[in-house]
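User: New here, any thoughts?
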Amino acid sequence: MGRKGSSSWLTAVKRAFRSPSKDAEKKTARRREEPDQEEEEKHKREKRRWIFRKSSAQEQQQQVPQAKASPLPAVTPEQRHAIALAVASAATAEAAVATAQAAAEVVRLTRPSASFVKEHYAAIVIQTAFRGLGLGLRWKARRALRALKGLVKLQALVRGHNVRKQANMTLRCMQALVRVQARVRDQRVRLAQESSAAVSRVSNKSSFSCDTSFWESKYLQELAERRSMSRDGSSFADDWDDRPRTMEEIQAMLQVRKEAALKRERALSYAFSHQVS
């Protein structure tokens, strides 16, 4: 179909480019040749009466060489150029039509189907739902994290307060223990000094009555101090004996009292260390 259309188009172009004078000359030449052709045909018909009739294929073969033998009309270079341009434009038009058809086919083939559009829309809806769910979970996680941070800060404050309170209590106990130890140490030093002074005085003096009164005063002073320090000071008052004693008895009593003071000091330090731990 394309070839027929192109050939008819080319013939129309050729007719348009032909000059009318040449067409008139060709018509007159054809009119002149027509009587001669009629006479020849009559002569042939007379001959064909006595000769068998030839096939139509042979007649066509005879007509084709006659047509080929007829001389072609002369064509100028301008007409040839115009014909070439027409042929090129026709080929270009055919190529443009083929390209347009191919593009239309490609568009038809690449056009998404209805099922594909539905699937794409469903995928978008699912993705949107999941994104919304993810945002909700993220917001809840951030809220829980903030609450947890607040709880941790509160625990840190409480622990810091408790630690400071415990540190203050420990410091107070340590200060009390240091004061008790210093007091006991001073008492021990004082008792040692007093015992040494008493021994020296007893050895130098001959009378024992004055020594007895001196030691009695010392015992009474020590008893008052121990009552202020210890919790059960009444037992010492009940056990007090104001009878005159010998030097050995006095030294034995002083030694016993020193040992008792050391035991009390150890008991106090142990109780304090146990309380702190």
About this structure: The chain has eight helices and no strands.
